[in-house]
């Protein structure tokens, strides 16, 4: 039967190359992974194709400019990780035998070539879409905004409540957790936020307040996320505390070492995270 791979086993390595301030392109390499290990990539496929053509690992390795040992180890690893043999050696004959791909191996190479062609079309389309952006700098600023905060959550807008100047936007993070952000009406319009729209919520760790039931104050913070301490680490003055939330996500806070001790924060202790709605940044992927 032909080889099959779950969707999660297809991974890419992408690079971002700027040629001019207003011209950019994406490049990348495609790998097929098995058991969280690199299984098949362009170089290994090329080696397999040469083995099939030349009938010899030695000659295939020489054609690729690699050592026989490296080529044999690559073949051995692929055979060991595969459901069926990919490369086999036949004995006998005038030449003393040869090395060839199995039918399964040939199917595997053909499948990778299809994946590789589709991956190339994807990168081409992505590069073309990038050219339609106003400037590369604008796009990079958007990427930076989405990755600068310690806490990042993807969700879906379930409510937008406008006021005279500001609006409250509620994001559902799965079935349980909710995040409320207070942003200007202008930002709501610019981001085209409405019910059903996908968006990301960004929260700096320094904006997160950690409390416990024993220390529960009356607070005006709009967001209160319950969970348990999953890890904590003290620094010179401040420490980092991470809570595992009820919905399976986590949130990290920067607090003083004194607070960690006074709250007796230990792994497994119930705690909550408070975040003001004005401290939540919303971002969308155009």
Task: Tell me about this structure.
The chain is of the alpha+beta class. Helix content is 31%, strand content 38%. The protein contains 7 helices and 15 strands. A 5-stranded antiparallel beta sheet has the order 8-7-6-9-15. A 5-stranded antiparallel beta sheet has the order 10-14-11-12-13. A 3-stranded antiparallel beta sheet has the order 1-2-3. The model is unreliable at 4-23, 133-137 and 139-147 (pLDDT under 50).
Keywords:
286 residues; alpha+beta; five-stranded antiparallel sheet; 15 strands; 31% helix; elongated
Largest sheet: 5 strands, antiparallel
Strand order of the largest sheet: 8-7-6-9-15
Molecular shape: elongated
For this structure, the quaternary state is single chain
The separation of the N and C termini measures: 41 Å
- What Rg is obtained from the alpha carbons, in whole angstroms? 27 Å
The number of helical elements comes to 7
Would you identify the regions where 5 or more consecutive residues have pLDDT less than 50? 4-23, 133-137, 139-147
Structural class: alpha+beta
Helical percentage: 25-40%
Which series of helices and strands comes N to C?
EEEHHHEEHHEEEHEEEEEHEE
Mean pLDDT: 79
Count of beta strands: 15
